Amino acid sequence: MKIDKIEVQHVKMPLVSPFETSFGKLLEKDFLIIKIFSGEHIGYGESVALPDPTYSEETTGTVSYMLDAFLIPLLLKEEINHPDDVTKRFAPIRRNNMAKAALEGAVWDLYSKKKGISLSKALGGVSSSIAVGVSIGIEETTDKLLSKVDRFLSEGYKKIKVKIKPGYDLEPLTKIRETFGYDIPLMADANSAYTLADIERLKEMDPLKLMMIEQPLAYDDIIDHSILQSELATPICLDESIHSVEDARKAIELGSCRIINIKIGRVGGLTEAKKIHDLCEKHSIPVWCGGMLEGGIGRAHNIAITTLPSFTIAGDTSASNRYWKEDIIFPEVTLSRPGEIDVPTGDGIGFKLNKEVINKYLLTTKVYESK
Ligand code: OSB
Ligand code: MG
Known about the structure:
- Residues 142-235 form the Mandelate racemase/muconate lactonizing enzyme C-terminal domain.
- Belongs to the mandelate racemase/muconate lactonizing enzyme family. MenC type 2 subfamily.
- By secondary structure, the chain is an alpha/beta fold.
- It has two domains: 5-116 and 354-369, Enolase-like, N-terminal domain (Enolase-like, domain 1), CATH 3.30.390.10; 122-342, Enolase-like C-terminal domain (TIM Barrel), CATH 3.20.20.120.
- 34% of the residues lie in helices and 21% in strands.
- It is globular, with a radius of gyration of 20 Å.
- The structure holds 2-succinylbenzoate and magnesium ion.
C-alpha cells in the first residue's frame, strides 16, 4: 500500500450533555481525525484520547505530538503490505497506544477498502449486527439518574453502565434495582476510585447482582484486583489496567478479572485488540468493546471489532445522538432495532465523512506529504 499523503484534522465538538466520572467532568471533546491517502482510496482513523490525562496519560496534545514527531515519519518511511506490519513498525516506540491506534486504524480502513471488503470482514468478524449498551455518567441527583436509565432502557439498550465513586455507589445502584428490578442488565464502572481498604464497601455490592464492576482499583494494578476478585462474588472487569495481550495474559493468570473491556485505542490498535480477543476466547473470558466518547470514525471501528465472536456482552458503543448533536460521519450511527446496531456492509468502515460537520468544528489541518 503506497501512501501518498496523511492528513490530521483537529476538531472540537460539544457533548449533548456533560459526562462526569470519578476522574472529572467533560463538556466537550477535542480529538483528531486521520486520513491516509493512497491512490483512489482514503483510510480513516480517529484519536480517542481525552483532552486531559485523567483516564490515561495520553491526551489529544500528546497524540498530536507523537504522530508528528515519530509515528507518521515511521509509517511513511517504508511501504507496508498489511495493517499488522504497522504494529511491528511502531513496536520500538514505548506506549502512546492511542496515538499508534489512530494511525493503525486508518491503515486497517485503507486495507479493507483496497480489498473491497468491510472492516468487520477484514478483521474476521462474524456478526451482522451488534448488541449495545450505554454508559451513564455521575448525575447531580438520583432522580436525574433514574430518568436517564428509564430513557435508555426504553430505547432498548442491552446494558446499563453507571459510573460510581466512593459516596456515590450503593445508594444510586440500589435505587436503580428498586425502580427497575433485578432483571435489567446493570453494571458499575469505578474508574479506579477505590482501594483495597474499601473491600467491605465493595462486598456490600454483591447482593445488587451487578453483571460486573469495572476497574474498581488503581489504573495500573492487577495484583490488588486479584485479591479483591477472590473475595468478591461480582465479576471484575478490567479496563484501564489492560494495554496489551501480555497484560491480559497476566491478569487472567492471576485471576484479577473475569471479564475484559477491550478499547482499541488503549491497547494500541485493532491488531492488538484482536489478539486480546483471541486470548480471552481461549480462556473463556467474555469481552466487550469499551468506548471513549468517540466521534463517528472511532465508533465505526468499535462496531467492526465488536463483530468478532467473543464479544458476547453488549458494549458501550451507543448511537451517535447519545453523544453529539451532529456526528462527523454519514449516515450517523443509529439503533437498527432496540439495543442493536446493524454492521455496515460497505467497504472499510462503511461510513462517509460529513465534511460540513467537520468544517464547522475544525480547529487545524496538518498535511504530511510522502516523499
Ligand atoms: O471508563 O469506560 C470508561 C468514557 C471516557 C473515558 C473512559 C470511559 C468512558 C465511558 C464512556 O465509560 C463510554 C462511551 O460511551 O463511549
Ligand atoms: Mg471504564
